[in-house]
Automatic annotation (TrEMBL):
Required cofactor(s): Mn(2+)
TM annotation in the entry: 20-39, 60-78
Family: Belongs to the glycosyltransferase 6 family.
Binding of an alpha-L-fucosyl-(1->2)-beta-D-galactosyl derivative, residues: 257, 327
Annotated InterPro entries: Glyco_trans_6 (IPR005076), Nucleotide-diphossugar_trans (IPR029044)
Residue positions of the active site: 327
Gene: LOC109066901
Cofactor stoichiometry and binding remark: Binds 1 Mn(2+) ion per subunit.
Membrane topology value: Single-pass type II membrane protein
Source organism per UniProt: Cyprinus carpio
Gene Ontology MF, one: hexosyltransferase activity
Main location, first listed in the record: membrane
GO biological process: carbohydrate metabolic process
Name this polypeptide is given: Globoside alpha-1,3-N-acetylgalactosaminyltransferase 1 (FORS blood group)
GO cellular component, one term: Golgi apparatus
Length: 378
């Protein structure tokens, strides 16, 4: 937004400078011509003739115009230099080439242009990385929402998590549901815990998914600050198929959406209406992040959830809902607050999507669902 403003100011300044320059040039020419005429008329006629007076007045006026436009030129020149400097500092940082996820040689890219790792199979040693974090005696809080018919996904989600997700670590699931009686009995591993939190449902799925930000924000405030080191918030209509361990830990974590990792950014389904707080212009954006995964240190996830909730509230007050609800706001947040680690689409796949060469292992995937049957509204 800052860049649009200053670019606009800079354009106006340039027009003003041009107008000033021509004015100065014309006034100076006029001044010298009238000055010359005054000298000639003085020789030929009486000093107080009408003609003489007119020429003298015009000469003085043109001098004043020339001086004013010269002062204007100096002022505008100074302003445009300082604006250009500001633009360099605050705006140009956002105009850069879209980073690629898979290189032209078909090889995966293991690092972002701001030097955050992109986690792919083969870029880390699972035993080593788990042993580093295990020494730190950390607790990983994991929030999951199962409202309405989505409780049917809980069994597979929890059972597959117990097999693959942070095995050997202290994991505390916080399960938000409107029907605690529907939560299945799942045998949890040692040092693993599940807390059920009852919340009201909604008759709009959009409201259910976007309200997760507020619930996450409040849960961090009331409990997680004291109960956990890291937190992940995950979609429930999912299953773990492979290891998901300490390689995914970091300050602020996002996942690249499996549907868009080879898409040009102008085709990302970001929110494109400037009235929304989630608005991202066509020339901006790094990756399209999936709303199904957000994680990191408790404090950093708190900032992200709080900011998204605030932006969602501003939009709601204007009766505007971003294209993909909280996912759109999360993408906006990540554009200006870059994740410190980015999970590759191995960490968010879709069961219906055929396997591709670059994704060697699928760790976590959205199961196939009948939208009409599971959601409360179309
Ligand atoms: C793969 C991926 O990135 N998915 C995102 C995508 O569509 P999805 O189609 O994956 O959204 P979704 O229907 O799975 O809803 C997201 C989550 O909200 C919860 N839920 C939703 C509806 C309901 O009736 N009950 C319920 O509990 C549940 O935890 C679910 O996993 O866009 C959504 C926002 O539009 C979310 O950002 C999802 O995370
Ligand atoms: Mn989902």
């Amino acid at each position: 937004m800052a860049s649009d403003l200053s670019v606009c100011h800079l354009g106006l300044l340039h027009i003003l400078m041009k107008v000033n320059f021509y004015l100065f040039f014309l006034a100076l020419t006029g001044f010298s011509l009238t000055g010359h005429s005054v000298l000639r008329v003085t020789k030929d006629t009486k000093p107080n003739s009408e003609m003489m007076k007119f020429l003298q007045n015009a000469n003085t006026l043109l001098l004043v115009v020339a001086v004013v436009s010269l002062t204007g030129l100096i002022f505008l020149g100074y302003s445009s230099t300082s604006l250009r400097y500001k633009e360099k500092r605050f705006c140009l940082k956002l105009s850069y080439k879209q980073p690629s996820v898979v290189g032209p040689d078909g090889k995966v890219v293991p690092v972002t242009p701001w030097l955050s790792p992109i986690v792919w199979e083969g870029t880390f040693d699972p035993l080593l990385i788990d042993s580093i974090y295990r020494q730190q005696n950390i607790t990983i809080a994991t929030t999951v929402f199962a409202l309405g018919k989505y409780t049917q996904f809980l069994k597979d989600f929890l059972e597959s998590a117990e097999q693959n997700y942070f095995v050997g670590f202290r994991v505390h699931y916080y399960l938000f549901t409107d029907q605690p009686e529907q939560v299945p009995e799942v045998k949890l591993g040692e040092e693993r815990q599940l807390t059920v939190l009852k919340v009201p449902s909604s008759n709009r799925w959009q409201e259910i998914t976007l309200r997760r930000m507020e619930k996450l924000e409040k849960l961090i405030e009331s409990r997680l600050v004291n109960e956990a080191d890291y937190v992940f918030s995950l979609d429930v209509d999912t299953k773990f198929y492979g290891r998901w361990g300490a390689e995914s830990l970091g300050r602020l974590i996002g996942v690249i959406h499996p549907g868009y990792y080879q898409t040009a950014r102008e085709q990302f389904p970001y929110e494109r209406r400037p009235e929304s707080q989630a608005f991202i212009p066509y020339a901006e954006g790094d990756y399209y992040y999936g709303g199904a995964v957000i994680g990191g240190l408790v404090k950093d996830v708190y900032e992200a959830a709080k900011t998204c909730r605030e932006q969602l509230d501003i939009d709601a007050a204007k009766s505007i809902e971003a294209a993909w609800q909280e996912e759109s706001h999360l993408n906006k947040y990540f554009l200006y607050n870059k994740p410190s680690k980015v999970l590759s689409p191995e960490y968010l796949w879709q069961d219906f999507k055929p396997h591709t060469n670059e994704v060697k292992i699928i760790r976590f995937s959205q199961v196939i669902k009948n939208y009409a049957a599971v959601r409360p509204n179309p």
